[in-house]
Amino acid sequence: MMLNKLLDGFHGKLTSSKWAVITKTSQDTAVRDIHDLIERGLLVKEEGGGRSTSYRLVVE
């Protein structure tokens, strides 16, 4: 699961494009997955936006 990769120390910026490649899904599915995890409070959107939008795991 992708969350395991994030918890195990994913290096670099997480983008929807990287998510799609790693999970072998479409870009649209990657965006839906990411937004679902944001709603659940597990990911947050980094500053910036556009094509360079990145996300990080919420660590409490």
Attribute tags:
two-stranded antiparallel sheet; Arc Repressor Mutant, subunit A; 3 helices; globular; 60 residues
Describe the structure.
This protein has 60 residues and is mainly α. The chain has a single domain, classed as Orthogonal Bundle (Arc Repressor Mutant, subunit A). The protein is built from 3 helices and 2 strands, in the order αααββ. The protein has helices at residues 2-7, 16-23, 27-39; strands at residues 43-45, 55-57.
Helix and strand element order: HHHEE
Stated plainly, the CATH topology is called Arc Repressor Mutant, subunit A
Question: What is the mean predicted local confidence, pLDDT?
Answer: 88
What is the rounded Rg? 11 Å
CATH class: Mainly Alpha
Find the structural class using helix and strand composition: mainly alpha
Distance between the termini: 20 Å
CATH superfamily: Winged helix-like DNA-binding domain superfamily/Winged helix DNA-binding domain
Number of domains: 1
- SS element count, helices: 3
Tell me the strand order in the biggest sheet: 1-2
